[in-house]
Amino acid sequence: MTSTLRALFGACAVATFATVAGAQTTITVATVNNGDMIRMQKLMPDFYAKHPDIKVNWVTLEENVLRQKVTTDIATHGGQYDVMTIGTYEVPIWAKRGWLASLDNLPASFDVNDLLPSIRAGLSYNGHLYASPFYGESSFIMYRKDLMKKAGLTMPENPTWAFIRKAADKMTDKAAGIYGICLRGKAGWGENTAFLTTMANSFGARWFDMKWHPQFDTKPWHETMNFYVDMMKADGPPGASNNGFTENLSLFQQGKCGMWIDATVAGSFVTDPKASKVANEVGFAMAPHKEGVKKDANWLWSWALAIPTGTKNEAAAKTFVDWATSKDYLNLVASKDGWANVPPGTRTSLYENPKYLEAAPFAALTLKSMKLADPTHPTVDPVPYVGVQFVAIPEFQGIGTAVGQQFSAALAGTTTIDAALKSAQAITTREMTKAGYIK
Amino acid sequence: MARRTTTARKTGNTVLAWGVGLLIFFPILWTILTSFKTEGDAIAIPPKFLFFHWTLENYVNVNAQSNYLLHFWNSVVISLGSTLIGLAIAIPAAWAMAFVPGRRTKDVLMWMLSTKMMPGVGVLVPIYLMFKTFGLLDTRVGLVMILTLIDLPIIVWMLYTYFKEIPSEILEAARMDGATLRSEILYVLTPMAIPGIASTLLLNVILAWNEAFWTLLLTASKAAPLTAFIASFSAPEGLFYAKLSAASTMAIAPILILGWFSQKQLVRGLTFGAVK
Prior knowledge:
The complex is a heterodimer of chains A (about 450) and B (about 280).
Chain A: H1 2-22, E1 25-32, H2 35-42, H3 44-50, E2 54-61, H4 63-75, E3 83-87, H5 90-96, H6 117-122, E4 124-125, E5 128-129, E6 132-137, E7 139-144, H7 145-150, H8 161-171, E8 179-182, H9 192-202, H10 219-235, H11 245-253, E9 257-263, H12 266-270, E10 282-286, E11 301-306, H13 314-324, H14 327-337, H15 354-359, H16 363-372, H17 396-412, H18 417-434
Parallel strand pairs in A: 1-2, 1-3, 8-9
Antiparallel strand pairs in A: 3-11, 4-5, 6-11, 7-9, 7-10
Chain B: H1 2-34, H2 39-42, H3 57-65, H4 68-99, H5 105-114, H6 124-133, H7 140-164, H8 168-176, H9 181-210, H10 214-217, H11 226-231, H12 241-261, H13 263-271
């Protein structure tokens, strides 16, 4: 009898153990390789301590490879990923097609109302949140305070393009290898097209009118391109048509640029004494605008975590998204690595935290810039699309890159500005007609 | 006088050959050097060639962030598996085409080659759907299958070209001595063709090792080979050249060593059939 009981207890214990082991859910998270995401992977012990029943597999990839992979997977309902890192460009397009699970029912502790309104708007579709922001950014001016002083100028908080041109002219010293202005020139919808779209917004231009007709043949686009090419030829570094974010970052860190207008995330890189020769000389200002135009050339971007519809592990995926984008996660990073390393640009409460404001000197400007970038009203004149530095339609990746190639060629001097804009108009009209937007 | 001219010429040729060799090798050398630099030194203008602060921190970071051995093992299984299965199919196929050609053999060969002319992305969605249906996504079996199919035309072509160099009279003699088809291929043709088969094997292992389109798109975490390992170190922000170079060096090192030890076979494989 005793031995029977023992055997019974033993069997129960084994069965219980097997059930617990079997109950563990494994989720696969696809993500980009940036500092914040790598940090999160290191902080996973906190997640496992709170949720021992969930195991996370990471797939970290270069941005373009990631985009290609997750797009293929979600379009075919492949089901390889339970959580995907996507941007403000993909969210409205994928949500419209029913590819993303709504995140409306996250727990109250998530505090959805704490999300920055512009970021929340960029990650929502028809009023429902479809991705939770892990990190957000805008764009601003980074400049060399020493060179500005030497030029006898003071950077206003909201400079105009005319001031930028004047400052660039005065700061440029080609003999010493210093160029007044560094801007993106490398072709690509996420490279020069993103920057030039925001610049065009600040000149009063837009991609499309309300009937989806391209607007490259209008005066504001000609003004934008003439100003950009003239300034870059006079004060930009050689070979600027090949420079993207990474190239300009290294030029600025090497002390070769007087001013650089790019992502706010670069603020922490150019002020890092380990990587930047000019770390102590960097000042920040809002992205410029043209006199009389009430739009600045600042963008809005967010890397966010989304859950594809049809995943078998939606509950576990939601638990993970809630943990990774919660207020508690920000506190966790701060306790381990300090407030300067907290993922920026997602929550209002972070910008009300004096410890964070003290640790990140560019935080206030980042917040102001993000608040002013409105993805639903990106331009002076009304537009039928959402997105500040992009147009949130599936066709934009192709069109944006083709147009970017024309702009890059105009900067390199292999075509004229007029010819580049004419080609951009023709390419966009053709693609938009083919896609059925223009009747 | 004549001897002096020859020596001068030889020296010139040697210098030229070394110059061209170094020029071709330079990107790899630069990658290896960059992998030992700090991120700051990696982007220094003017570039630092040898006089920089040598560090192993990139290798430490790369190893801490990724499971190199898993990716390495996946690469070994996928490249060797696809090449060996490819050879098992291609040897009989190339034998038939070389020694018993039909009226349409040339057309079949051209048709096989034509499958290489279509960009892979053209069939991405159907193949992805098939992989999904058969549960092959993120599996080594699936990758071995797709890489076998992709490299098969090249394997057949290489073997066909090599088999054509073998006089058919030798095979006829074996047949007259009563050899069956199986023993003819296994005991007569294959031993004579070993150098050609070896170079085909090596070249296709390298091709499969470097294949980056399908291996990236059809895998997630379990079956991802070294191509995915490299792709994970390029970043949308910040500086990453030194870490990316360390990852690239670790990914190419095994195949570089293999290539170094088998360069004679490789050169033979690359040049046979070109000019006879």
